[in-house]
Amino acid sequence: MNAVTPPSPNAPVAAVIGGTRGLGRQLAVQARDAGLDTYVYGRSVHTMAPADARGFVLRELDLSDPASVDAADVDLPGPLHLFWVAGAFLKKPLVHTTDAEIEGLTSLLLTGPLRLLRRILATAPASVHLVTIASSSGWRRRENESLYCALKAAQAHVSRSLVPELVAADPANRVTVINPGGLAVPDFHTGLEIDYGTMMDPAEVAGIIWRAAAEQSAPFQELQILRSREPGAEGTPIVSHGPRVPEPPL
Q1: Which end of the chain is more exposed for a tag (fewer CB within 10 A), N or C?
Q2: Full strand arrangement of the beta sheet holding 237-241
């Protein structure tokens, strides 16, 4: 499906942590196309083709390297829409997971972004709308994904828990938590055999997220964006509001 250009939000600036591929790239593209100054953070920003990088302010960032996080440029004008998207997937029984995999995924999905977010919030010159792209894996029953699921649940809950302190710092601050289901991003599910024709289009999901963020007036909202499995409508996004209770493991 074609992307839906979002309505122009109040914030003239967007920053996407993990904006070089998949859903993060689509969020950045739609921000740029809507006329927002758009900052893209990622490890591979300087390897992007000129056509792919057009209209973006590129900032190199390796979330798995504390020195890179601490050195990253966090000078961002505002008001700011800040998208926490960066991620990677791991499907493996915990007993077969290496120390390097545990440390690498934890730094990429949680501790690295938190170090960066702390710096951005400490220096932001105006209000910040944090849009956290968590996952339905944070509450769904999964097999051989315990580390990934735990980190996505933590990402969502730390964002919820930030709301009181952000609103106390500036009543205009906002938080949105998005829990998407399966997206058609082949290089995310490396090594797995997946029918991407039954998964959601990242551009369409990005349009839904931008509309929700642009229209939000309350300090907090949480959305589930799950894919339909109905014959003939596979991969169609189904949107609902509010958190979900974790599914039982068995």
Answers
A1: C
A2: 56-60, 37-42, 13-17, 80-84, 128-133, 174-180, 220-227, 237-241
Structural domains of the chain, ranges and CATH numbers in brackets: 13-241 (3.40.50.720)
Q: Which two tokens stand for residue 205?
A: 């999901």
Q: Give per-residue burial for 173-182: e unless 16+ CB within 10 Å, then b.
A: bbbbbbbbbb
Q: Which residue reads 């730094």 in tokens?
A: 107
Q: What is the DSSP string of 18-76?
A: T-SSHHHHHHHHHHHHTT-EEEEEETTGGGS-HHHHTTEEEEE--TT-HHHHHHS----
Q: If 0-12 CB within 10 Å is exposed, 13-18 middle and 19+ buried, where does residue 239 land? A: middle
Q: What is the pTM of this model?
A: 0.92
Helix 99-106 crosses helix 146-169 at what angle (to 10 degrees)? 30
The CA distance from 51 to 219, in Å, is 36
Rounded CA separation 247/10 (Å): 37
Residue 22, phi then psi, degrees to nearest 5: 55, -140
Condensed to tens digits (0 to 9), the pLDDT of residues 24-62 reads: 999 999 999 999 999 999 998 888 888 888 999 999 999
Q: How far is it, in rounded angstroms, from Cα 221 to Cα 209?
A: 11
Question: In Å, what is the CA distance from 85 to each residue of 79, 165, 247?
Answer: 19, 22, 24
How far, in Å, CA of 47 to CA of 53, rounded? Answer: 9
